[in-house]
Amino acid sequence: MDGKSKPGVPYDVMTDTWVKKHRLIYIGATRHPFILSIRDGTVDLSAFKRWLGQDYIFVRAFVPFVASVLIKAYKKGDESSGDMEVILSGLGSLNDEIAWFKQEASKWGVDLSQVAPEKPTQDYCRFLEELMRPEVDYTVAMAAFWAIEAVYQESFAHCLEEGSKTPTELQEACQRWGNDGFGRYCSSLRNIADRQLEKVASGSVPLVKVSEDAVSKAEVTFLRVLEYEVDFWNMSCGTDGHSAPKP
Ligand SMILES: Cc1ncc(CNC=O)c(N)n1
């Protein structure tokens, strides 16, 4: 993107550009066979339970990541942006989410204390740890944060759309990430990420210096999130090659 636009013609923000440019992998992450199987009601419940246990491990690692983004927002020192409030609300919902996972696990007879992280979970959690480092730019961390939340929001909202046959007992899980409030929260994260990215793309004099380097790093990070999400869904389906061999 060159940052220029014709008068009256709306131009894409950076995250739109990325989603269009990397459309195939984006669809791969947000319309994965696992999600489609929930949506058409053919989901294998053992796959759902595996997802539940692994996602609980992921979410626990996601909390300190979000806390690290909060620290970066604070250090940026721009109180009027409202970024901290948005991120803090995210931490608040993660608190509810962890309680929900525990409750859901007991409902399905999954003993969370016995769940060991599988390779895709370990790799994704390690990626989060890398992003927590203080040297990682706020712009890069925000892009990752938005992408991680957006994949779940788009995936689970798809399971609640008109015509979907999501089993009743899975609708609550889909509501967690597919509800409108979560959609608005994802838009806020996206706006923060785009505003950060715009500081370079528009060529405006940046108040907070964001290097060109941070913009390309952010795009690479966005892509890596999509890859980790696809691996995570594959693992849940048992299509990652580590599951029991097919008869
Ligand atoms: C693997 C993965 N990606 C994104 C989310 C959504 N964020 C927090 O809940 C999640 N729970 N798990």
| Shape descriptor | globular
Helix % is over 70%
Mean pLDDT across residues: 91
Task: Give, in order, the helices and strands.
Answer: HHHHHHHHHH
Bound molecules: N-[(4-amino-2-methylpyrimidin-5-yl)methyl]formamide
Q: Alpha-carbon distance between the termini? A: 50 Å
Would you state the CATH class? Mainly Alpha
CATH-assigned homologous superfamily: Heme oxygenase-like
Give the gist of this structure.
The protein has ten helices and no strands. It is mostly helical and 247 residues long.
Features:
binds N-[(4-amino-2-methylpyrimidin-5-yl)methyl]formamide; single chain; 247 residues; mainly alpha; Heme Oxygenase, Chain A
Topology:
Layout: H1 14-21, H2 23-30, H3 33-39, H4 45-76, H5 83-108, H6 119-131, H7 138-158, H8 168-178, H9 180-201, H10 212-237
Helix pairs in contact: 2-10, 4-5, 4-6, 4-7, 4-10, 5-9, 6-10, 7-8, 7-9, 7-10
This protein binds N-[(4-amino-2-methylpyrimidin-5-yl)methyl]formamide.
Structure explained in plain terms:
By secondary structure, this protein is an all-alpha fold. The chain has one domain: Heme Oxygenase, Chain A. The protein has ten helices and no strands. Helix 4 runs antiparallel to helix 7. The longest helix has 32 residues. The chain is globular and about 50 Å long. The structure holds N-[(4-amino-2-methylpyrimidin-5-yl)methyl]formamide (NFM).
